[in-house]
Amino acid sequence: QVRLVESGGDLVQPGGTLRLSCAASGSIFRLATMGWYRQAPGKQRELVASITSRGSTNYSDSVKGRFTISTDNAKNTVSLQMNSLKPEDTALYYCNAHLNWPRPTDYWGQGTQVTVSS
């Protein structure tokens, strides 16, 4: 069983920065694709950024150039550095671990709230 715990969400002004962290139980980064998703009120959950076990990253067009995903294998954490935040970035942000072995499985954290407002 994989446990994911997010932290770092806060209220920030437009143009500000935040860094989200997700602590994972166990050493799963060598096997999992880690991702950050977000869900705004009334909208579907969407992928923000992901990073494979080999370090390949993928970003949604809406955050490309502003957000950076990274992992620290020694600390079993995945982080999301968010710069130049916009009001439309306001959402509940979830950490995800996707494993393909022994079967496709997704694990989710409980979410951390990011609010961008003046």
Describe the structure in your own words.
- By secondary structure, this protein is mainly β.
- It is 0% helix and 50% strand.
- The strands form two sheets. Strands 2, 4, 5, 6, 9, 10 and 11 form a seven-stranded mixed β-sheet that branches. A four-stranded antiparallel β-sheet has the order 1-3-8-7, with no helix packed on it.
Task: Give the arrangement of secondary structure elements.
Elements: E1 4-7, E2 11-12, E3 18-24, E4 33-39, E5 46-51, E6 57-59, E7 67-72, E8 77-82, E9 91-99, E10 105-108, E11 112-116
Parallel strand pairs: 2-11
Antiparallel strand pairs: 1-3, 3-8, 4-5, 4-9, 5-6, 7-8, 9-10, 9-11
Main traits of this protein?
single chain; 118 residues; mainly beta; seven-stranded mixed beta sheet; four-stranded antiparallel beta sheet; 11 strands; 0% helix; globular
Average pLDDT rating: 94
- Residue windows where pLDDT falls under 50 for at least 5 positions: none
| Strand content range | over 45%
Number of helices: 0
Distance between the termini: 40 Å
- Outline: globular
User: What's the story with the biggest beta sheet?
Assistant: 7 strands, mixed
Radius of gyration: 14 Å
How do you describe this structure in short?
The protein is an all-beta fold.
